[in-house]
Amino acid sequence: MGASLALGSPAAFAKDINVVTSTDFYGEVAQAVLGKHGKVTSIISSPNVDPHDYEPTTKTAKTVSKADIVLYNGLGYDTWIEKLGGKKQIDIASDVMHAKDGDNEHLWYNSKTMAKTATYLANQYGKIDPKNKAEFKKNAANYEKKLTKLSTTLAQIKKNSDNKKVAVSEPVFEYALDDMGYSIANDHFAKAIEDGGDPSFSDIKKLQDDIKKKKIVFFVNNTQADSKVIKNLVDLCKKNNVPVVNVTETLPAKQNYISWMQSEYNQVLKIQEN
Considering the entire predicted model, what is its pTM? Predict the structure, then answer.
């Protein structure tokens, strides 16, 4: 009887892991590593919801509080989730990427973030469910292998970037541009837009001149930003045949993380080919 009780005890069985992520693109890597051994719930799964401004409902708070693992970006992007509990919170900025306050928050554009997050999650899942530790590590390795397509594209772009100057509407695509080997010509302007302020007249004038004189090879536009200044600059780019690369801060509908990144990288490749 004692042996039967031991075999029937909860410890003898693998535990389904309940994971909650702030956004769907982090939910993607969380589920890829977890596989069939639990459930991942992404709080924000619409491209039209800004994680900065999201206000959790009572239902959301309850969902998060019951999670074994809560995964979020950090650095002010989605930190509303910190207050909602969960057994183990993982701040990708500090726990995975060792970023510091003031660093660029758009970590998913860093080519190393998703691979490191996959490895980190495999270790965390293994602590909760040791029986399937090897499978979690295998799942993480498989996901990382899929990411090599993006690394290959970045390397291809970097061969022809030559540290040339580009301009950005705000610092959303900054990590990717760094990986590509481009330098940003208008940091001060971009920071003002990101902070919700108005760029100075001199910053705007300099950027306009850079566009007219083709001192930049392309302009990166966050299409989710609502700014008349940016709209006018995009129009100026089109008028002066300066290419525009359109990016977003949230996962577009009907795409996954890899297809999302690839579609934006391809815009840069096309510019180089032309």
Answer: 0.91
